[in-house]
Amino acid sequence: MTTELPVIPHWIDxxxxxxxxxRTAPVYNPATGRVVREVALAxxxxxxxxIASAQAGFETWSALSIARRQSVIFKFRELLVxxxxxxxxxxxxxxxxxxxxAMGEIARxxxxxxxxxxxxxxxxxxxSENVSTGIDVYTLKQPLGVVGVISPFNxxxxxxxxxxxxAIAAGNAVxxxxxxxxxxxxxxxxELWKEAGLPDGVFTVxxxxxxxxxxxxxxxxxxxxxxxxxTPIAQYIYxxxxxxxxxxxxxGGAKNHMLVLPDADxxxxxxxxINAGYGAAGERCMALSVVLAVEPVADELVAKIEARIADLxxxxxxxxxxxxxxxxxxxxxxxxDKVKGYVDIAEADGGRIVVDGRxxxxxxxxxxxxxxxxLIDHLSLDSRAYTEEIFGPVLQVVRVQTxxxxxxxxxxxxxxxxxxxxxxDGGAARRFQHEIHVGMVGINVPIPVPVAYHSFGGWKASxxxxxxxxxxxxxxxxxxxxxxxxxWLDPATxxxxxxxxxxxx
Length: 505
Description:
- By secondary structure, the protein is α/β, with parallel strands linked by helices.
- The chain folds into two domains: 11-16 and 28-252 and 462-483, Aldehyde Dehydrogenase, Chain A, domain 1, CATH 3.40.605; 256-443, Aldehyde Dehydrogenase, Chain A, domain 2 (3-Layer(aba) Sandwich).
- It is built from 15 helices and 23 strands.
- It has helices at residues 44-61, 66-95, 99-117, 119-122, 158-169, 184-196, 210-218, 231-243, 266-278, 298-309, 333-348, 384-387, 403-411, 426-435, 471-477, and strands spanning 7-8, 10-12, 15-17, 24-29, 34-40, 127-132, 135-143, 146-150, 173-177, 203-205, 222-228, 247-251, 256-260, 288-294, 352-355, 374-377, 394-400, 415-416, 418-422, 440-443, 459-460, 463-465, 479-487.
- Helix 14 links the parallel strand 19 (418-422) and strand 20.
- The longest helix has 30 residues, at 66-95.
């Protein structure tokens, strides 16, 4: 006898909405390798219903006062703070990351919620009095309308929160299309918005696959698209949405390098390489992939990293009798096999596998999607394992002879998301931050993700579109400016008909 699995529904018109499409996808617990539930995959009728609901929600929400909108966002923040452990447990079950990492993800998303509570200051217009005799000019910032957010599996809470708190604060209605691999967090957040008093239709969750994505990209009612994912999909999202007249911010992939100068504290470097390379099992676009070691420090640094890897524990992210592990599993078996394939490529191309995680097994979780921390030395720059994003717990070491060689290597890559330099030389660090062609730079900081009141985004093939995520650029993205030129005539000084331009006499 088979047990019917629960199906994760959509969230439309302020309520869980069962799908009638007849299409579903499996949702796994990556630690056990078992399907724990299914998720609905929307058809065109459900896409249309979600958009219609969001349009109605926008008309209600955008007409409310700033004070009323602000109170709802404050309430959402209050509820989120009180109930974060609930949400973290959902993330860990469907994504696999350890609970402390899930809590950290929520905390970083919460930063954007807190930025959004102060939105009245960030959507103010400007006013210029008497620009010409009796004429004033002022600007208004108004919401776009219905906006789409398409988020990835690796941060099912934080990445949507890069966008929807700001979009909602600015007066828009949001349709979130979460990853079908871990969609339950999106429904949980929708219920929290409902409890906070957000009107129905302002926050919609549309579960689905490419059909749902394309439905948002082509719908004329959807005014903008925000996306995070791989570079090929980001480019597709950008080109398709832009062709349909939408604003787009599409954040793509990465291959992040850490340049280590000979004067650096190698114990600090080794610690931070472990944190940045293996945290979240390497499934993050700001993960550190490549250590560029300026000789003669490579041998010593590799030995220090190898020693630290020996102490890392891989296991069920939810923890157990032995406490919480350092790394959880990868998201799916297919992704684990893809990561393994890159290590195979590196080895075939002459790389030395210092620590091999390809056959990692966790007792009691033999069917889980686990991959052990892996360290590769002497990697060929021509190898696909070097040039392409791996998105797993694989750290690579490349040896260079000079600072200039390291900078040139970073700048020659197709990506420009994040990078870091480790040194005690302030002049070298200042030169690095000026010369490097990367959007986010760390100086003795391995994962330079900006705080919420700055903005997140890379250069080159790591970002397509109009604006970076969150910060002031986020508010600019989710509003459009209207300039108004005004004159109130004084009957006593009316000058009669004049067909020319205003003069400043």
